[in-house]
Recover the amino acids of this structure.
Protein backbone atom coordinates (compact mmCIF):
# COMPACT_ATOMS: atom_id res chain seq x y z
CA UNK A 1 0.00 0.00 0.00
CA UNK A 2 1.20 3.52 -0.77
CA UNK A 3 2.69 5.62 1.98
CA UNK A 4 0.90 8.80 0.85
CA UNK A 5 0.20 10.97 3.89
CA UNK A 6 -3.20 10.88 5.51
CA UNK A 7 -5.57 13.78 4.86
CA UNK A 8 -4.40 16.73 6.93
CA UNK A 9 -6.46 17.24 10.05
CA UNK A 10 -8.80 14.34 9.32
CA UNK A 11 -10.31 12.38 12.16
CA UNK A 12 -9.36 8.72 12.16
CA UNK A 13 -11.28 6.01 10.40
CA UNK A 14 -12.81 3.26 12.54
CA UNK A 15 -12.68 -0.43 11.75
CA UNK A 16 -13.97 -3.69 13.12
CA UNK A 17 -12.89 -7.11 11.90
CA UNK A 18 -15.64 -9.69 12.33
CA UNK A 19 -14.96 -12.64 14.59
CA UNK A 20 -13.70 -15.59 12.55
CA UNK A 21 -15.98 -18.34 13.77
CA UNK A 22 -19.37 -16.75 13.12
CA UNK A 23 -22.07 -18.98 11.67
CA UNK A 24 -22.41 -18.14 8.00
CA UNK A 25 -25.95 -16.94 7.33
CA UNK A 26 -28.21 -19.52 5.68
CA UNK A 27 -28.98 -18.17 2.22
CA UNK A 28 -32.31 -19.35 0.84
CA UNK A 29 -32.64 -19.59 -2.94
CA UNK A 30 -34.31 -16.68 -4.66
CA UNK A 31 -37.49 -18.11 -6.22
CA UNK A 32 -37.86 -15.26 -8.74
CA UNK A 33 -34.61 -13.50 -9.69
CA UNK A 34 -35.43 -9.93 -10.76
CA UNK A 35 -33.13 -9.77 -13.76
CA UNK A 36 -35.84 -10.67 -16.30
CA UNK A 37 -38.13 -7.94 -15.00
CA UNK A 38 -35.33 -5.37 -15.06
CA UNK A 39 -34.53 -6.39 -18.63
CA UNK A 40 -38.17 -5.74 -19.55
CA UNK A 41 -37.82 -2.07 -18.59
CA UNK A 42 -37.04 0.42 -21.37
CA UNK A 43 -33.38 1.41 -21.39
CA UNK A 44 -32.11 -1.56 -19.38
CA UNK A 45 -28.51 -2.51 -19.98
CA UNK A 46 -25.84 -3.84 -17.67
CA UNK A 47 -23.81 -1.03 -16.10
CA UNK A 48 -20.07 -1.05 -16.91
CA UNK A 49 -17.35 -2.75 -14.92
CA UNK A 50 -14.40 -0.38 -15.31
CA UNK A 51 -10.69 -0.61 -14.60
CA UNK A 52 -9.35 2.05 -12.23
CA UNK A 53 -5.56 1.90 -12.64
CA UNK A 54 -4.86 5.16 -10.77
CA UNK A 55 -6.89 3.98 -7.81
CA UNK A 56 -5.00 0.67 -7.93
CA UNK A 57 -1.65 2.49 -7.87
CA UNK A 58 -2.76 4.68 -4.98
CA UNK A 59 -3.67 1.58 -2.95
CA UNK A 60 -0.70 -0.44 -4.13
CA UNK A 61 -2.91 -3.31 -5.28
CA UNK A 62 -2.84 -5.36 -8.45
CA UNK A 63 -6.20 -4.28 -9.79
CA UNK A 64 -9.18 -2.11 -8.91
CA UNK A 65 -12.40 -2.78 -10.76
CA UNK A 66 -15.34 -0.42 -10.33
CA UNK A 67 -18.95 -1.35 -10.95
CA UNK A 68 -20.11 2.03 -12.18
CA UNK A 69 -23.73 2.78 -11.24
CA UNK A 70 -23.69 6.41 -12.34
CA UNK A 71 -26.31 5.66 -15.01
CA UNK A 72 -28.89 3.02 -14.25
CA UNK A 73 -32.24 2.90 -16.05
CA UNK A 74 -32.11 6.66 -16.62
CA UNK A 75 -31.17 7.57 -13.02
CA UNK A 76 -27.79 8.32 -11.45
CA UNK A 77 -27.70 5.50 -8.88
CA UNK A 78 -28.20 1.76 -8.44
CA UNK A 79 -31.24 2.28 -6.21
CA UNK A 80 -33.81 1.95 -8.99
CA UNK A 81 -32.98 -1.78 -9.20
CA UNK A 82 -34.42 -2.36 -5.72
CA UNK A 83 -37.19 0.22 -6.03
CA UNK A 84 -38.42 -1.10 -9.38
CA UNK A 85 -38.51 -4.73 -8.25
CA UNK A 86 -40.24 -3.86 -4.96
CA UNK A 87 -42.78 -1.60 -6.72
CA UNK A 88 -43.48 -4.37 -9.24
CA UNK A 89 -43.92 -7.06 -6.59
CA UNK A 90 -46.09 -4.84 -4.38
CA UNK A 91 -48.31 -3.80 -7.30
CA UNK A 92 -48.72 -7.35 -8.60
CA UNK A 93 -49.83 -8.35 -5.13
CA UNK A 94 -52.14 -5.32 -4.88
CA UNK A 95 -53.75 -6.38 -8.18
CA UNK A 96 -54.30 -9.89 -6.81
CA UNK A 97 -52.26 -11.36 -9.66
CA UNK A 98 -49.25 -13.66 -9.95
CA UNK A 99 -45.82 -12.86 -11.38
CA UNK A 100 -46.58 -15.24 -14.25
CA UNK A 101 -49.76 -13.31 -15.10
CA UNK A 102 -47.88 -9.98 -15.13
CA UNK A 103 -44.41 -10.94 -16.33
CA UNK A 104 -43.11 -7.58 -17.59
CA UNK A 105 -43.07 -3.86 -16.99
CA UNK A 106 -45.34 -3.12 -19.97
CA UNK A 107 -47.89 -5.63 -18.81
CA UNK A 108 -47.84 -4.10 -15.33
CA UNK A 109 -48.58 -0.67 -16.76
CA UNK A 110 -51.55 -2.03 -18.73
CA UNK A 111 -52.98 -3.90 -15.75
CA UNK A 112 -52.69 -0.85 -13.50
CA UNK A 113 -55.48 0.93 -15.42
CA UNK A 114 -58.00 -0.81 -13.14
CA UNK A 115 -56.20 0.17 -9.92
CA UNK A 116 -55.83 3.93 -10.37
CA UNK A 117 -55.94 6.27 -8.51
CA UNK A 118 -53.13 4.80 -6.48
CA UNK A 119 -50.13 6.37 -4.76
CA UNK A 120 -46.66 5.17 -3.80
CA UNK A 121 -45.04 6.61 -0.66
CA UNK A 122 -41.39 6.40 0.33
CA UNK A 123 -38.86 7.99 2.63
CA UNK A 124 -35.38 8.70 1.40
CA UNK A 125 -32.06 10.36 1.91
CA UNK A 126 -31.99 10.89 -1.83
CA UNK A 127 -31.73 8.08 -4.28
CA UNK A 128 -34.37 5.57 -3.18
CA UNK A 129 -37.12 8.19 -3.11
CA UNK A 130 -36.10 9.49 -6.50
CA UNK A 131 -36.23 5.95 -7.85
CA UNK A 132 -39.71 5.31 -6.39
CA UNK A 133 -40.89 8.66 -7.80
CA UNK A 134 -39.46 7.69 -11.20
CA UNK A 135 -41.29 4.35 -11.14
CA UNK A 136 -44.55 6.08 -10.14
CA UNK A 137 -44.16 8.51 -13.05
CA UNK A 138 -43.53 5.67 -15.53
CA UNK A 139 -46.60 3.84 -14.23
CA UNK A 140 -48.92 6.88 -14.02
CA UNK A 141 -49.20 6.75 -10.22
CA UNK A 142 -48.95 9.50 -7.61
CA UNK A 143 -45.72 9.63 -5.56
CA UNK A 144 -45.35 11.04 -2.05
CA UNK A 145 -41.75 11.25 -0.92
CA UNK A 146 -40.61 12.17 2.62
CA UNK A 147 -37.10 13.52 3.18
CA UNK A 148 -34.97 14.52 6.19
CA UNK A 149 -34.68 18.19 7.15
CA UNK A 150 -31.08 18.56 5.99
CA UNK A 151 -31.45 17.27 2.44
CA UNK A 152 -29.70 19.51 -0.09
CA UNK A 153 -31.93 21.44 -2.51
CA UNK A 154 -30.49 19.71 -5.60
CA UNK A 155 -31.64 16.30 -4.37
CA UNK A 156 -35.15 17.59 -3.49
CA UNK A 157 -35.42 19.23 -6.91
CA UNK A 158 -34.41 15.99 -8.63
CA UNK A 159 -37.22 14.11 -6.86
CA UNK A 160 -39.73 16.86 -7.70
CA UNK A 161 -38.71 16.70 -11.35
CA UNK A 162 -39.99 13.12 -11.34
CA UNK A 163 -43.43 14.60 -10.57
CA UNK A 164 -43.51 13.61 -6.89
CA UNK A 165 -44.72 15.69 -3.98
CA UNK A 166 -41.83 16.07 -1.54
CA UNK A 167 -42.42 16.64 2.17
CA UNK A 168 -39.48 17.75 4.31
CA UNK A 169 -39.80 16.09 7.71
CA UNK A 170 -38.53 17.72 10.90
CA UNK A 171 -35.69 15.32 11.77
CA UNK A 172 -33.34 12.81 10.16
CA UNK A 173 -33.83 9.79 7.94
CA UNK A 174 -35.53 7.75 10.68
CA UNK A 175 -38.14 10.51 11.13
CA UNK A 176 -38.80 10.48 7.38
CA UNK A 177 -39.23 6.69 7.49
CA UNK A 178 -41.76 6.96 10.34
CA UNK A 179 -43.73 9.65 8.49
CA UNK A 180 -43.92 7.68 5.23
CA UNK A 181 -45.20 4.61 7.09
CA UNK A 182 -48.27 6.60 8.20
CA UNK A 183 -49.48 6.81 4.58
CA UNK A 184 -50.02 3.06 4.21
CA UNK A 185 -53.61 2.26 3.19
CA UNK A 186 -55.83 0.82 0.45
CA UNK A 187 -54.92 3.62 -1.99
CA UNK A 188 -51.28 4.09 -1.02
CA UNK A 189 -48.48 1.51 -0.98
CA UNK A 190 -45.39 2.26 1.12
CA UNK A 191 -42.19 1.26 -0.69
CA UNK A 192 -39.42 1.48 1.89
CA UNK A 193 -35.88 0.19 1.50
CA UNK A 194 -35.57 -0.28 5.22
CA UNK A 195 -37.60 -2.56 7.47
CA UNK A 196 -39.06 -2.59 10.94
CA UNK A 197 -41.15 -5.07 12.93
CA UNK A 198 -44.22 -5.93 10.85
CA UNK A 199 -42.85 -4.34 7.64
CA UNK A 200 -40.50 -6.80 6.05
CA UNK A 201 -41.73 -8.05 2.69
CA UNK A 202 -41.24 -4.89 0.60
CA UNK A 203 -37.68 -4.24 1.87
CA UNK A 204 -36.88 -7.91 1.24
CA UNK A 205 -37.88 -7.33 -2.40
CA UNK A 206 -35.63 -4.26 -2.46
CA UNK A 207 -32.70 -6.47 -1.43
CA UNK A 208 -33.64 -9.02 -4.10
CA UNK A 209 -33.74 -6.26 -6.70
CA UNK A 210 -30.09 -5.42 -6.05
CA UNK A 211 -29.05 -8.97 -7.01
CA UNK A 212 -29.03 -7.87 -10.65
CA UNK A 213 -25.83 -5.89 -9.94
CA UNK A 214 -23.96 -9.00 -8.82
CA UNK A 215 -25.32 -11.16 -11.63
CA UNK A 216 -24.02 -8.56 -14.09
CA UNK A 217 -20.60 -8.48 -12.39
CA UNK A 218 -20.24 -12.27 -12.65
CA UNK A 219 -21.24 -12.17 -16.30
CA UNK A 220 -18.84 -9.34 -17.16
CA UNK A 221 -15.92 -11.10 -15.45
CA UNK A 222 -16.70 -14.40 -17.17
CA UNK A 223 -17.10 -12.71 -20.56
CA UNK A 224 -13.74 -10.95 -20.20
CA UNK A 225 -12.07 -14.09 -18.85
CA UNK A 226 -11.00 -12.19 -15.74
CA UNK A 227 -10.41 -13.56 -12.28
CA UNK A 228 -12.91 -13.05 -9.47
CA UNK A 229 -12.07 -10.28 -6.98
CA UNK A 230 -10.40 -11.03 -3.63
CA UNK A 231 -12.11 -8.09 -1.93
CA UNK A 232 -15.52 -6.54 -2.58
CA UNK A 233 -16.21 -3.14 -0.99
CA UNK A 234 -19.83 -2.09 -0.43
CA UNK A 235 -21.15 1.21 0.95
CA UNK A 236 -23.68 0.80 3.76
CA UNK A 237 -26.65 2.99 4.68
CA UNK A 238 -29.32 0.74 6.22
CA UNK A 239 -27.51 -2.32 4.85
CA UNK A 240 -29.87 -3.49 2.10
CA UNK A 241 -27.19 -3.38 -0.62
CA UNK A 242 -24.68 -5.06 1.69
CA UNK A 243 -27.27 -7.76 2.44
CA UNK A 244 -27.59 -8.37 -1.30
CA UNK A 245 -23.79 -8.66 -1.53
CA UNK A 246 -23.75 -11.21 1.30
CA UNK A 247 -26.60 -13.12 -0.32
CA UNK A 248 -24.65 -13.31 -3.56
CA UNK A 249 -21.15 -14.05 -2.29
CA UNK A 250 -22.14 -16.36 0.57
CA UNK A 251 -24.57 -18.56 -1.38
CA UNK A 252 -23.56 -22.20 -1.52
CA UNK A 253 -20.94 -22.72 -4.21
CA UNK A 254 -20.31 -19.01 -4.76
CA UNK A 255 -16.89 -17.46 -5.10
CA UNK A 256 -16.12 -16.05 -1.60
CA UNK A 257 -14.25 -12.74 -1.63
CA UNK A 258 -13.60 -10.82 1.56
CA UNK A 259 -16.53 -8.44 2.03
CA UNK A 260 -15.87 -4.92 3.33
CA UNK A 261 -18.77 -2.70 4.46
CA UNK A 262 -18.20 1.06 4.52
CA UNK A 263 -20.11 3.73 6.44
CA UNK A 264 -19.40 7.39 7.27
CA UNK A 265 -17.99 7.90 10.78
CA UNK A 266 -20.99 10.12 11.60
CA UNK A 267 -23.47 7.42 10.51
CA UNK A 268 -21.79 4.14 11.42
CA UNK A 269 -24.95 2.42 12.65
CA UNK A 270 -23.88 -1.04 11.46
CA UNK A 271 -20.36 -0.82 12.88
CA UNK A 272 -21.74 0.47 16.19
CA UNK A 273 -24.39 -2.26 16.20
CA UNK A 274 -21.66 -4.86 15.60
CA UNK A 275 -19.70 -3.45 18.52
CA UNK A 276 -22.83 -3.59 20.71
CA UNK A 277 -23.73 -7.12 19.55
CA UNK A 278 -27.25 -6.08 18.52
CA UNK A 279 -29.05 -3.43 16.45
CA UNK A 280 -28.70 0.04 17.94
CA UNK A 281 -29.97 3.45 16.85
CA UNK A 282 -27.40 6.23 16.75
CA UNK A 283 -28.38 9.11 19.02
CA UNK A 284 -26.38 11.85 17.32
CA UNK A 285 -27.39 13.53 14.02
CA UNK A 286 -26.06 12.01 10.80
CA UNK A 287 -24.28 14.77 8.94
CA UNK A 288 -22.06 13.09 6.36
CA UNK A 289 -21.65 14.42 2.83
CA UNK A 290 -22.21 10.76 1.83
CA UNK A 291 -25.92 11.57 2.01
CA UNK A 292 -27.25 8.16 0.99
CA UNK A 293 -25.37 6.58 3.88
CA UNK A 294 -26.77 8.94 6.54
CA UNK A 295 -28.79 6.31 8.39
CA UNK A 296 -29.18 5.88 12.14
CA UNK A 297 -30.56 2.33 12.32
CA UNK A 298 -29.68 -0.81 10.34
CA UNK A 299 -32.54 -2.46 8.49
CA UNK A 300 -34.07 -5.25 10.58
CA UNK A 301 -34.09 -7.76 7.73
CA UNK A 302 -30.65 -6.82 6.43
CA UNK A 303 -29.08 -7.24 9.86
CA UNK A 304 -28.79 -11.07 10.02
CA UNK A 305 -26.94 -11.08 6.69
CA UNK A 306 -24.87 -7.97 7.27
CA UNK A 307 -23.87 -8.90 10.83
CA UNK A 308 -22.81 -12.42 9.85
CA UNK A 309 -21.62 -12.04 6.29
CA UNK A 310 -19.46 -8.90 6.16
CA UNK A 311 -15.83 -9.51 7.13
CA UNK A 312 -14.52 -6.01 7.79
CA UNK A 313 -16.59 -2.97 8.80
CA UNK A 314 -14.99 0.42 8.17
CA UNK A 315 -16.25 3.89 9.10
CA UNK A 316 -14.62 6.59 6.98
CA UNK A 317 -14.46 10.33 7.74
CA UNK A 318 -15.83 12.70 5.07
CA UNK A 319 -12.35 14.20 4.65
CA UNK A 320 -11.23 11.17 2.61
CA UNK A 321 -14.03 11.39 0.05
CA UNK A 322 -12.71 14.25 -2.08
CA UNK A 323 -9.41 12.57 -2.96
CA UNK A 324 -11.22 9.32 -3.79
CA UNK A 325 -13.66 11.22 -6.02
CA UNK A 326 -10.79 12.88 -7.87
CA UNK A 327 -8.90 9.59 -8.27
CA UNK A 328 -11.96 7.93 -9.75
CA UNK A 329 -12.56 10.93 -11.98
CA UNK A 330 -8.99 10.61 -13.28
CA UNK A 331 -9.84 6.98 -14.05
CA UNK A 332 -12.85 8.19 -16.07
CA UNK A 333 -15.48 7.33 -13.45
CA UNK A 334 -18.04 9.86 -12.20
CA UNK A 335 -18.61 8.88 -8.58
CA UNK A 336 -20.78 10.87 -6.18
CA UNK A 337 -19.99 10.91 -2.48
CA UNK A 338 -21.43 7.45 -1.74
CA UNK A 339 -19.88 6.10 -4.92
CA UNK A 340 -16.43 7.16 -3.76
CA UNK A 341 -16.95 5.86 -0.20
CA UNK A 342 -15.29 2.49 -0.79
CA UNK A 343 -12.08 3.93 -2.21
CA UNK A 344 -12.10 6.61 0.52
CA UNK A 345 -12.27 3.87 3.15
CA UNK A 346 -9.34 1.94 1.71
CA UNK A 347 -7.19 5.07 1.45
CA UNK A 348 -8.12 5.99 5.03
CA UNK A 349 -6.94 2.55 6.18
CA UNK A 350 -3.68 3.26 4.37
CA UNK A 351 -3.11 6.42 6.42
CA UNK A 352 -0.22 5.22 8.52
CA UNK A 353 -0.33 7.91 11.22
CA UNK A 354 -3.68 6.74 12.54
CA UNK A 355 -2.68 3.08 12.43
CA UNK A 356 0.20 3.39 14.79
CA UNK A 357 -1.90 3.60 17.91
CA UNK A 358 -5.11 1.90 16.80
CA UNK A 359 -5.08 -1.89 16.96
CA UNK A 360 -8.49 -2.16 15.22
CA UNK A 361 -7.27 -0.31 12.14
CA UNK A 362 -4.09 -2.35 12.11
CA UNK A 363 -6.10 -5.59 12.29
CA UNK A 364 -8.38 -4.44 9.49
CA UNK A 365 -5.41 -3.62 7.32
CA UNK A 366 -3.90 -7.01 8.07
CA UNK A 367 -7.19 -8.80 7.29
CA UNK A 368 -7.45 -7.04 3.94
CA UNK A 369 -3.87 -7.91 3.00
CA UNK A 370 -3.83 -5.27 0.28
CA UNK A 371 -0.78 -5.96 -1.79
CA UNK A 372 0.53 -6.19 -5.31
CA UNK A 373 -1.56 -9.30 -6.06
CA UNK A 374 -4.85 -8.11 -4.56
CA UNK A 375 -7.85 -7.72 -6.84
CA UNK A 376 -10.34 -5.19 -5.43
CA UNK A 377 -13.89 -4.59 -6.63
CA UNK A 378 -15.54 -1.33 -5.59
CA UNK A 379 -19.25 -0.65 -5.96
CA UNK A 380 -19.56 2.97 -7.07
CA UNK A 381 -23.22 3.29 -6.26
CA UNK A 382 -23.98 6.77 -7.59
CA UNK A 383 -22.91 9.40 -10.07
CA UNK A 384 -22.94 13.14 -9.41
CA UNK A 385 -26.27 13.26 -7.55
CA UNK A 386 -25.28 16.67 -6.11
CA UNK A 387 -23.78 18.15 -9.31
CA UNK A 388 -22.61 21.43 -7.71
CA UNK A 389 -20.71 19.59 -4.96
CA UNK A 390 -19.22 17.24 -7.56
CA UNK A 391 -17.97 20.15 -9.68
CA UNK A 392 -16.41 21.80 -6.62
CA UNK A 393 -14.60 18.55 -5.80
CA UNK A 394 -13.20 17.65 -9.21
CA UNK A 395 -12.79 21.23 -10.39
CA UNK A 396 -14.73 20.89 -13.63
C1 LIG B 1 -25.74 6.03 -3.55
C2 LIG B 1 -26.00 5.10 -2.44
N1 LIG B 1 -25.07 4.19 -2.13
C3 LIG B 1 -25.25 3.31 -1.13
C4 LIG B 1 -26.41 3.33 -0.37
C5 LIG B 1 -26.54 2.36 0.75
O1 LIG B 1 -27.52 1.41 0.54
P1 LIG B 1 -28.27 0.73 1.77
O2 LIG B 1 -29.11 1.80 2.42
O3 LIG B 1 -29.03 -0.36 1.16
O4 LIG B 1 -27.21 0.26 2.71
C6 LIG B 1 -27.40 4.27 -0.65
C7 LIG B 1 -28.64 4.31 0.11
O5 LIG B 1 -29.47 5.16 -0.04
C8 LIG B 1 -27.19 5.18 -1.71
O6 LIG B 1 -28.12 6.09 -2.03
Amino acid sequence: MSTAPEVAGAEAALALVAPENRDPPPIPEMPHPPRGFHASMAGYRATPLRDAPRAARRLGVGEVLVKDESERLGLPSFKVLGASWAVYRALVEHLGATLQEIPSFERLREELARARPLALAASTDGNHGRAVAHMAALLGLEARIYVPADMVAARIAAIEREGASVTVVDGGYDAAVARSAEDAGPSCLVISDTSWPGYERVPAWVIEGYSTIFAEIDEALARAGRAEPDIVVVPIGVGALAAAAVRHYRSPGAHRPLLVGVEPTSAACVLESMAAGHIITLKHPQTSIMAGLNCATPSLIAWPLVSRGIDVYVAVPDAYVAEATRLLSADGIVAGECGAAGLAALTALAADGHLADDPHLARAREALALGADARVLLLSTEGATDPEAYRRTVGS
About this structure: Residues 77, 79, 125-128, 193, 235-242, 292-293, 338, 381-382 surround pyridoxal-5'-phosphate (CB under 6 Å). Residues 80-94 form the longest helix (15 residues). DSSP finds 17 helices and eleven strands in the chain. The CA atoms of residues 14 and 72 lie 31 Å apart.
